[in-house]
């Protein structure tokens, strides 16, 4: 209606009618006004039909036939010539720090992926809805944050399905990706989990340092096009770090995307049971379905994500000769919360 009024005013001006002070128009001018007004009204009806009826119907029909079309639509604003990175957050949602992180993402029009714990998520449906509304991706981090390698197939499925139900309840969306707690995976786990398992390329070790300055340094020092960054949205120090990381990397040209968007833009098809560490070009960090692990062998990423960064051998906060952390906690903000939560 506003569009109709503006275009009608424009039509009056173009015909010279807007210049009359007497308010009296000739028959010819009235005919012009009527014709233009009718055309604008018709255009408004067509626009409304396309935007509110035909287009959604066409998109939904296409999505039903090709689920990958959704990734295509979500990446239309991403510039393939510029670097992109996927920030990921585990273990939330949290009333304080998750909300702070979402505030930062919204401020800079950035996207991220949140791997939620189902027992936390069920108490924070409003936060799940906000994640979805802001274009973030929501992944599955089990219901009770239990390592999948300690469970049989039936209990793995229960942990994942219960969390799926919570996500679906509050967002209406199906969960496409999983992050196994601790990054612990075996061949048996791969056979049971029917979705891509997302690990990480950059471990900020926020779970260990609880120090904003350390998290910022690790994330920004090791940032690369196609990298997956591990953080946890249960620490205020991480939220404080994100408030610096996002604008700092954005100034360097980085785009902040979800896991599914990153995979799509890098031409990688995510498959069920596959393990994905990054989409960094020519770095070999992405194992997909690893073939170098024998049946039943335990693959433990906990405490040393660098064991899978085969190309560089470097991991944030881990020395090249030792798995011991080298980050300090004597500068910046630091949390003093529960130490029971570890990596992943």
Structure, explained:
- The chain is built from twelve helices and eight strands.
- The protein has helices at 2-15, 27-65, 68-74, 97-107, 118-121, 125-133, 153-171, 187-192, 206-209, 212-221, 236-251, 259-265; strands at 84-90, 113-116, 137-140, 197-198, 202-203, 228-232, 255-256, 275-276.
- Strands 1, 2, 3, 5, 6 and 7 form a six-stranded parallel sheet that branches.
- Strand 1, helix 4 (97-107) and strand 2 form a beta-alpha-beta unit.
- It has two domains: 2-16 and 27-65, no CATH class; 73-308, TIM Barrel, CATH 3.20.20.
- It is 42% helix and 8% strand.
- The protein is of the alpha/beta class.
Provide keyphrases for this structure.
344 residues, TIM Barrel, six-stranded parallel sheet, 12 helices, 8% strand
Mean pLDDT reading = 78
Report helical residue fraction. 40-55%
- Helical run tally: 12
| CATH homologous superfamily title of the largest domain | Glycoside hydrolase/deacetylase
CATH overall fold name of the largest domain = TIM Barrel
If you compute it from the alpha carbons, what radius of gyration comes out, rounded to the nearest whole angstrom?
25 Å
Pick out the low-confidence regions: 287-334, 336-340
Largest sheet, if any? 6 strands, parallel
Given the C-alpha coordinates, what overall shape results?
elongated
Our count of domains comes out at 2
